[in-house]
Write a structure and sequence with these properties.
Number of strands: 8
Bound molecules: 2-phosphoglycolic acid
Number of helices: 10
Helix content: 40-55%
Shape: globular
Order of helices and strands: EHEHEHEHHEHHEHEHEH
Largest sheet: 8 strands, parallel, barrel
Strand content: 15-25%
Strand order of the largest sheet: 1-2-3-4-5-6-7-8
Radius of gyration: 17 Å
Oligomer: single chain
C-alpha cells in the first residue's frame, strides 16, 4: 500500500526537516512491514534536501515531485523536467493533480505526455483523476472517471501503474464519498486500465485522495480496490500523518 504525502506549496526548509525526520522516526519502527511504501512529495525547492534526509534515514520513505514538464529540456522558463526531478533524488512524480488541471489548464493529453516523459526518465508517475462537484451531483462520476483514466494514462505504461482517484469536491473540504462510492469508482478505474489499456491487474494501484485524515484513514484503506492514499493537508502534521501510516495494517 502506498501512502503519499502531497505537501503542495507548503514548507520551508526548517519545518520540512522536522516533519520529514518525525515521519522517518515513525517508519524506522516499521521496516519489516514491506506492505507500506511511504512517499513524500515536497515542493521542488525542497526535493534535493528531502531526498538527502531520506538517504540519511536509510530510505525509510521515498521522494516524489508534484509535476514535471513533458519536454526533456529547453526554453521553458520556470518549468522542471522529469530528469531534473530524478537528478534531485525523486523516484515518483504526481501528475495531473486537479489543482494543476484547474490553475494551469492541464489536459488529459498533456498529463499522458508528462507520464511518458516521467517513465522515460525512470520515475514512477502517480496520475490523478477526479470528478468535479457538478459531475458528481449530475451522476456523471463514472463516465468522467473512465474518460479521464483512458486519456491520461499513456498507452505504453504497463508496469507499476499508480492512479489517484481524487474527487475535486473532496479535496481540502472535509467531505469524502461513501465507501460504496469509492469502491465502485475504483473498480471502474481498474476495469478501464485492464480492458482498455491491457494492464495486468497486479500492476495497478488506485489510491484514494481527498480529505484523508487520521480518523477516516482506517475505513478508507480497507475498502476493496483502494491501494493506498494521497494525503494533502493531513500530511503537513507529523502526528496526524503517522496515524494515517499506522492505518496500513
Ligand atoms: P487533501 O488534499 O488531503 O488536503 O484533501 C489531497 C490532495 O489534493 O492530494
Amino acid at each position: 500500500m502506498y501512502v503519499i504525502a502531497n505537501w503542495k506549496m507548503n514548507g520551508l526548509r526548517r519545518e520540512a526537516e522536522v516533519l520529514a525526520r518525525d515521519v522517518a522516526e515513525y517508519l524506522h519502527g516499521r521496516e519489516e512491514e514491506s506492505a507500506l511504501e511511504c512517499v513524500i512529495c515536497p515542493p521542488a525547492t525542497l526535493l534535493h534536501a528531502v531526498a538527502g534526509w531520506a538517504e540519511a534515514e536509510e530510505q525509510v520513505f521515498a521522494v516524489g515531485g508534484q509535476d514535471c514538464r513533458a519536454e526533456a529540456a529547453g526554453a521553458y522558463t520556470g518549468d522542471i523536467s522529469a530528469a531534473m526531478l530524478k537528478d534531485a533524488g525523486a523516484e515518483y512524480v504526481i501528475l495531473g493533480h486537479s489543482e494543476r488541471r484547474r490553475h494551469h489548464g492541464e489536459t488529459d493529453a498533456q498529463v499522458a505526455a508528462k507520464a511518458r516523459a516521467a517513465r522515460a526518465a525512470g520515475l514512477i508517475p502517480v496520475i490523478c483523476i477526479g470528478e468535479t462537484l457538478e459531475h458528481h451531483e449530475t451522476h456523471r462520476t463514472l463516465e468522467v472517471i473512465e474518460a479521464q483514466t483512458a486519456a491520461s494514462v499513456p498507452d505504453g505504461l504497463k508496469e507499476n501503474v499508480i492512479l489517484a482517484y481524487e474527487p475535486v469536491w473532496a479535496i481540502g473540504s472535509g467531505n469524502v464519498p461513501g465507501p460504496g462510492e469509492i469502491e465502485v469508482t475504483h473498480s471502474a478505474v481498474i476495469a478501464t486500465l485492464t480492458e482498455k489499456k491491457g494492464i495486468a491487474p497486479e500492476q495497478i494501484s488506485v489510491l484514494y485522495g481527498g480529505s484523508v485524515k487520521a480518523e477516516n484513514a482506517p475505513d478508507i484503506l480497507r475498502i476493496p480496490g483502494v491501494g493506498g492514499a494521497l494525503v494533502g493537508g493531513a500530511s503537513l502534521n507529523a502526528r496526524e500523518f503517522c496515524r494515517i501510516l499506522a492505518a496500513v495494517r
